Amino acid sequence: MITIKKLRQVTLKIKQLTKKDLIKFFKYSALGGFVIFILFFLAIYFGLFGRVPTYKEVKLFRNMEASEVYSADNVLLFRFDKENRINILYDSIPTHLINALVATEDARFYEHNGVDVKSLFRVLVKTIIMGDKSSGGGSTITQQLVKNYFPRKSYWFLSTPINKLEEMVAAYKLEQHFTKEQLIEFYFNTVPFGDSAFGLESASQRFFSTHASKLSIEQGAVLIGMLKATYTYNPLKNPEKSRSRRNVVLLLMKENNFISQQQLDSISNIPLVTEKKQLVRHVGKARYFTEYVRLQMQEWQLTNKKPSGKSYDLYKDGLKIYTTLNYEMQQYAEQAVAKRLKHLQREFEYQWRYEEPWSDVPVVLENAIKSSRRYRLMKEQGASEATIKEVFDTKKPMKIFSWNGEKRVMMSPLDSVKHYLMHLHASFIALEPKSGHIKAYVGGINDRYFHYDHVTTKRQVGSTFKPFVFAAAIEKGVQPCDMYPNTLIKYPQYEDWEPKNSDHIYGGEFSVWGALAASVNTVTVQLMEKAGLDNIINLAKSMGITTDLPKVASLSLGTAELSLLEMARAYATFPNYGIPTTEKSVLKIVDREGNALPTFPEKIHKEVYSQRTAEIMIEMLKKVVVNGISAPLRYDFKLFYDLGGKTGTSQSHADGWFIGFSSNLVTAAWVGAENPSIHFKDMQYGQASYTTLPINGEFLRLLKNNPSFKYYLEGTFRAPSKEVQILYNCLSRKNVPRKQLDTVQVVQKDSLIVDVKKDSLQ
């Protein structure tokens, strides 16, 4: 604690200091301050705070340009632009506009090297010492360019000095490498004009509906005048202020000898005339896919750097990203999803017309309300539950999604939550099994209203997991004609688990291939015991399943939650005869100079099961489509080709899956509500053969009708070896116990399920 006595002692010592001591003190203080300033300046100069580009980076400085994503058939899918910006060349900028900029913003632009020392002294004397805020800020055009291109950062109480010094250093470096003309071009392509217009060309179109090259002197003066305060001098919002500011710009042009007194008098009297044009942002196509590509590119950016050593910026560096997607196939996929989901949604709403699907589980609605953006914002603002409830119960005008187009309605936020909670969703992907190229990708039913990508969402896969069980069993020596009883069995090693068939029909026997064709649970679990759970898990992972699989017996019936993407990837192993694939979305990446950049490294895969198993699995999965539960794909859609596939319906038919393949294409689809608690009331409408299989069927039918895509359907699988033919020819084998079972095949006829014929399965 400092006492009065101590303070007196300190005061006495100060009084005893000689003049020489004081001079010495101030001398060292000044020297220390100077050293600190030099160190501080050097830290800024060498980019310690991050904003100042190195000389290597300066040489690579370019106009901000959005990267673009293209399909394999050269359709522009998406531009990574955060702003309405259209770059133009220096030659397209009228001379009078350049003169107006120089006269208004930086009269000594052609004399300094990025930093105008005279202006700095003016700011020091007039603005800081005399308090005259009208005297200007002292930033040169080049410094403003730096500010536009490298947004300022917060450095707490040192923000202003650090940012200003950074801009001076960066401006000086730019001036060393670029001509004044190049700097003017950079400036006009980066400067914001307000009203969502960035750069001169966008502003010209926004406020005058013309190109920058055709701007008149008075129009150019309006735009330059806006740079002082884009809202205050916006000609659409504040025409009088804008006209007054325009005339100030013209006066400055006259004072700098860019126009004559006669021109000044003449142009100043011209009325302000604007012609507004709505700037339309690039919406893009295949938005779920391009968002997937963006995430892929984020990973790419971690290991691929610019020549300067800095990371690429998708929003500035003008990359051209060429993808595997075929846009015509993408349109077919979107059509197939929309056609089926529109039909299913109508039936779903009709089935629940007297009650709400979440009536037995009210927490579903509660969670949906709390997850809504409106609720979260109100909570962040400190609103009480009573206030929130009142807001959610009050009707207001809004736009909502419907399958008949966007609707304008009077609806409460609560009703809006219910409206979207009631919707069924879907996803679809098509990829080439050999190359892994993604040819079509539909992540949801509408990318504007539903942003969640269901291609990468994990849901319970149901019976689509069974082929992994059967493949592991075949690899362990099980044969397609081996017979297994269709009986209820309790498994004491799994806590007396007693797996049941979805149709609750038991008795008799099924051959292995017949059990897969009819998707029989009782036999599948017996095969799981033969194959071993560890072997099944290892095989599924080696085929492309990346999610950790639970080591539980019910895994064999598809209780795991996996994504459509990894299931399609794993199924590609079947038409590849045991060789897995890795999906690929990007074919080529090119920089703005046209130089090819490295893409993603290719992965080399080895065979994961024998050729015998490969041939048997193809034949068995073909039987599922010809004789089994997936027969509607063949007969309803007239797809009499070499096709294999498997449906899958999860517990309570919350999820419907179908994954199919030809020798050259894998197609996979999923249907379900966003919350698994919401689903059809019964299996008749909820089963995958009704909800999901038709999406694949419609997509393949559209491919069939286009000669350009024959390759994907007309390819055939190779003939099985003699050994496999013998193993598969059950009827020619003697002394094989078998019982002929009648199984009912069903096909979909619009909204009606009808029995069409009975076949015997061995």
Can you give a write-up of this model?
With 762 residues, the protein is of the alpha+beta class. The protein folds into 3 domains: 42 residues; 187 residues, Penicillin binding protein transpeptidase fold (Orthogonal Bundle); 338 residues, DD-peptidase/beta-lactamase superfamily (Beta-lactamase, 3-Layer(aba) Sandwich), CATH 3.40.710.10. Helices cover 43% and strands 13% of the residues. It has 30 helices and 21 strands. The strands form 7 sheets. A 5-stranded mixed beta sheet has the order 2-1-6-15-16, covered by helices on one side. β18 and β19 form a beta hairpin. α6 crosses α8, α19 crosses α21 and α19 crosses α22. The radius of gyration is 35 Å and the shape is elongated.
Number of domains: 3
Low-confidence stretches: 127-136, 732-762
Named CATH architecture of the largest domain: 3-Layer(aba) Sandwich
Secondary structure class reads alpha+beta
Radius of gyration: 35 Å
How would the global form be characterised?
A: elongated
What strand order characterises the main sheet? 2-1-6-15-16
CATH topology type of the largest domain: Beta-lactamase
CATH class of the largest domain: Alpha Beta
What composes the largest sheet? 5 strands, mixed
- Total beta strands: 21
- At the fourth level of CATH, the homologous superfamily of the largest domain is DD-peptidase/beta-lactamase superfamily
Strand content: 5-15%
Give the end-to-end Cα distance, rounded to a whole number of Å.
97 Å
